[in-house]
Design a protein that fits this description.
globular; single chain
Length: 241
Amino acid sequence: MEKLKKSVFISLVSIFAAFNIICDLLVVPPILPYSGVWYSWVFITEAITGIVLGPLAGFLSTFIGVMVGHLISYVDAFEFLFTIGAPLGTMISALVFKRKWGIVLAYYFALLAGFFAAPVSWQLPFWGMWDVYLAFGTLLLLAFTTTKWKSLWDTKSKIRLLYVLAFSTLIGLEADVLFRIFIFVPCQTYTLFYGYGVGELQAIWALGAVETPIKVALSVIVTAMVGPPIISAVKKMKLSF
C-alpha cells in the first residue's frame, strides 16, 4: 500500500509537471508593450501545483515544467534565471496554504529590503508595485489573525477553503513577481542583460503595474474554481491534507 501511494504521488508530480510544461509553452501576448512578468500561461497552474503537492514536490514539479518549457520554446538564456520565480511562487503558495507564516514573511521581508536598498528603486514610481504591497499587507494580516483565531484558516470548510485558496494564490504569485523584480532591479539585470536605462525601466515599471495584477486575479479565480474538486480527489487517495 505504501509503495502504491508513493507511485501515485510520483504520478501526480509528473502530471502537474506536464501541465506546467503545456502552460509554459502557451504564450500570452502582452496587453501593453514590455508589460507584465509572465509571457506564458504558467501563472495559471503555479499556485494549485504547490497547494496539492506541497512546498518541495510542488517546487520540483513547477521547476521541471518551466525549464522544459523554456528549452522547447527558447527565448534567451536570461529567461532561465527569471523563471525560477515560478517554482518559488509555487512553494510560497504551498507554505501559505499550510500556514507556515514565518518562512513566507522572511521571504517577503528579505526581498523587499533588498529592493528598497537599491538606489535605482527610488527612481521608480512607488505605486508600480501596488499588487506586491497588497499581497504583503494581506500576508501580515493573515499571519496575525490566523495565529490568534486558527479556525479562520480551516481548509476542511468548503466556504473557508475558497478564500484560503484565493489568498494562497495571491501571496504565492506575488512572491514570484517579487523574485523577478529583485533580479531585474536591485541585481541590475535590466542594464546588464538588456541594456535598458532608467527611463526605459520607469516605462516598463508603469506598464507592468497594469498587466501583472490582471493575470494574478485570473489565476486566483481559476484556482478557487478548480482547487476544491482537485483537493477532494487527492484526499480520497489519502496522499496529503
